[in-house]
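Hi P.,

Sorry for the delay on this. The queue was packed all week, but I finally got your sequence through. Input first:
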Amino acid sequence: MFRAALAAAVLLGLVVTPQASAASLVEVTGFGPNPSNLRMHVYKPDRVASRPGILLAPHYCTGSGPDMYRNTEFARLADQYGFVVIYPTATRTEKCFDVSSPQALRRDGGSDPVGMISMVRWALRQYQGNPARVYVTGISSGAMATNVMVANYPDVFDAGAAFAGVPDGCFATTNGSLWNTECANGRVLKSPQQWGDIARSAYPGYIGKRPRMQLWHGTNDDVLRYPNFGEEVDQWTNVHRLSTTPTSTDHPQPNWTRRKYGDKVEAISMQGVGHNLMASGMALRAIQFFGLDRRV
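Then the structure:
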């Protein structure tokens, strides 16, 4: 029931944008270690940049990589700015990404994150991509996967953007289930230090640069409840050793409140918006946050 609501809520909010380019979505097989049998599709624009940026875009529950391609603006933006987009597909029955198992929540532990990082590494080799310009963004289940991927592979991703997600580790289970009702309902509350420790524990001993994070959430989200937004902010500000007090606040649109925490974390709260928040123009703001709107 929860997964059905998750998918329905997200699908209602997606923007269908026709692809004007002659480039097309291509399925790739044999891309590397893939313990959970994910499928991989890639969109390479006709005019790809020299040493292009690579964007990983995991989908929402019951969706697929081709659905994410058709129903979001990332491919159109790739046409404009010359980056490459990877669209993974979860193949289990629920079509949700594993952000719950102990294997998924540690670097190279197994399950979906290993398959997705194989896709990224394949694309970097295949397209002579720029390893300093690798990003991940997703919606709902894909947003949760975004948080997991930047925790597991902080040395790979420069930044992530999570649209209606939960903190890394919040959905953790040990009973084989991929759904955590307590987390979905916003009842898993921890201190910033505790959340930061969870993210850091995904890659023990890592002391390098951490990915920048952009977080989005609607105040009326009834699938992954709004308290998760604050917990995400707590997690990533702590990972960056920042205060939870924003350094600036503005309103890019009348019902949006954007809070910035230095130049590392950006959090956009949308008043009165539910789970279906991927409206036109939001993908562009993620691309701008990444810096993929510049050909370098």
